[in-house]
Amino acid sequence: MFSRVFFLVCLFYSVVLCAEPSIGSSAPSALAPVESRSPFAFSDPLKAPCSGIPRKGVWIGNTSVAFQLDFGNGQKCAYKPFTTQMRTRYRNEVAAYRLARALGLLNVPSASTVCFDKGKLRAIINFGREARRKRFDQEVRSETKGKTWGALMRWISPYQTFSLKEAQWKPWLKKGGEVPSSSRSLAVQLSTLLVFDVLIGNWDRWSGNNLGLYPPTQMLLYIDHDGAFFYPEPPLLQKTRKKFQDVDRFSRGLIEAIRVLLDQDNQEKLISVIGEEQTGVPLLSSGAMQGIRERGIWILEQIEKKKAILGDSEVLYFE
User: So which residues are the signal peptide here (predicted)?
Assistant: First the structure.
């Protein structure tokens, strides 16, 4: 997990090949990821890609290894690499983003997988403490020609940790609860979050700084998905399911999007949405993919049960 929260680089269905980075002679310690390819161009500054060559970096990890990379052109990004401790959990950030975009959600930071030369990455990082440098050497995995894969994410400022207590917002999502007009957007985003976390199997949303707010637009930021996509799912996920079951109001559009995504007549749709990390390398395991499908079906079943008791308009309360 990050000690400071982040946002990230726009790529959907992105495939980044680990070729030799081109290093400018004027910046011998810099390193460049291989060109990333995306069919999307975002005007929203939150979705703008990190581009160019990172010039320096600083350790920002707490329980996990993570860095802030400075590209020297006003752009800063977070980078979460493949490590022996967290292994390929960096892929969760990309999978969560791709799944969110397929459902029409903008709350999950855009994420892409990239690879850097481990040695050159090490050279530009300010570790702060020697113990961190040793941890980098021991934990960060490198593959062919010393390259290490990871997730690259935009660093966002201003950022606030979401601090509204559950006792304040939960009544908005219960039958008969009054939703202030000024809080309706927030209520929709919280309801959506409860559904999304069940779908991705995320047990770790409420343990710390894993939910943020972007003040300029009041958008909730669903961040840090180290605790998602486990299969078989951990017992802790029951708390996530209970939060979902304890509320009554959901977005009609989101539920319909999940229904379309899980269409039994087109089971390749979910596979194509999650995609690959690189050619021939699926982003998620077959078990993790099965988990998404099983939890999605469970969500749809629970919605139907709630509708039978409370009525369609009360359960699918939001658009």
Answer: 1-19
290/284 Cα distance (integer angstroms): 10
d(CA 5, CA 91): 17
Q: Which domain holds residue 223?
A: 160-315
pTM of structure: 0.84
pLDDT digits over 113-166, tens only? Answer: 888 999 999 999 999 999 999 999 999 999 878 999 999 987 877 889 999 999
Asked whether residue 254 is assigned to any structural domain, the reply reads yes
Residue 75 lies in a domain: no
* Distance, CA of 224 to CA of 108 (rounded, Å): 9
pLDDT in tens, 153-169: 878 778 899 999 999 99
Sign of CA pseudo-dihedral 79, 82, 85, 86: positive
- For residue 131, is it within any domain? no
Question: Does 5 map to a domain?
Answer: no
